Amino acid sequence: MIQVTKTYLPNKDKYKAYVDRIFESGQLTNAGSLVQELELRLAEHLGVKHLICVASGSLALQVAYKALGLEGEVITSPFSFAATTSTLLWEGLTPKFCDINPQTFNLAPELIESHITDKTSAIVPVHVFGNPCDVEQIQAIADKHKLKVIYDAAHAFGVTYKDRSVLQHGDISTLSFHSTKIFHTIEGGAIITSSNEVAAKVRLMINFGISGPNKTEGLGINAKMNEFEAAMGLCVLDDIAKISQNRSNHVAEYTEVIGDKLTFQKTNAFSSKLFSYMPVLFDTEAELLQVKQALEVEGIFARRYFYPSLDVVYSKGVLCPVSNAISQRVLCFPLMADLPKIVLEILGKLLQKV
Ligand SMILES: *Cc1c(COP(=O)(O)O)cnc(C)c1O
């Protein structure tokens, strides 16, 4: 059986050596030395100023909303994983769904202003499948209306925009290091910001607001990453160049096999190559289901990321027609560092019949 992705497992002995270090130190969590090492290495690898590791991508978003003091309404994309919206609702914020561009699958910047009211405090766009949003236009709208911008960048690990990390954009960008993601720490995530003040606040917030013995500054939560997760991250990070290269090669192979039979996501002209997911757009949902089912007969499980559109999930109605139409026709083919050749062979044969 071949699933849509496969967790990358690093060298076991290397991981064990880190576990030995954890047992020797006796420190399993609370900003231990491995979490500190991982934060420094990730910030350097990605080219960002402050990177704070947390327990999940969802907690990264929740802490980001709190750290920036969001309230009222937040404009966001309905074409995303549930967490982008569920975290807003969990924090008592009201998501306002703005439709997407049918080619890039990202929030359509020209539609954002029509959703702004006197209750709006922020915009939470998603770099869908790692494809950078129109970051300059979104920032201009945010500046004009004094709104915060938090990018859900869960898919954008290692993605650059105009030769700099796309994670440098917005007041905060968040990552997920869940084991299904290209870089993972079993469970985990990170908060990225260029602001010293925001970074300091986030560090307090992820540990109950505790600033020293007998001292608590403001409200916090437990969102800390532990040492075993950081150890996994350090091992996976050693191999990230190889993982990315392999996945890039598989994307190129898919592109060749698919040719002009299906439509690809329109990627930002200023971005680096994407290799987090392998999304394609079918002409109709019926064709999508036909190919998906034919693959399943062969033990290959493509996934309908993202279906249904989140406006339908969380508001019980279609608010964004483009997102709904796209979500019915997008399918993600399996993508992993060591994609079995058989997937491309079978897909090639199936597409000849479409
Ligand atoms: C994976 C993902 C998340 C959630 O991350 P977790 O680490 O699983 O909490 C949030 N947003 C998007 C777009 C994701 O794909």
From TrEMBL:
Domain of life (superkingdom): Bacteria
CDD domains linked: AHBA_syn (cd00616)
GO MF annotations in UniProt: transaminase activity
UniProt KW keywords: Aminotransferase, Pyridoxal phosphate, Transferase
UniProt-listed Pfam families: DegT_DnrJ_EryC1 (PF01041)
Family: Belongs to the DegT/DnrJ/EryC1 family.
PANTHER family per record: PROTEIN RV3402C, TRANSAMINASE
Protein name as it appears in the record: DegT/DnrJ/EryC1/StrS family aminotransferase
Source organism (scientific name): Shewanella psychropiezotolerans
Classification of source organism: Bacteria, Pseudomonadati, Pseudomonadota, Gammaproteobacteria, Alteromonadales
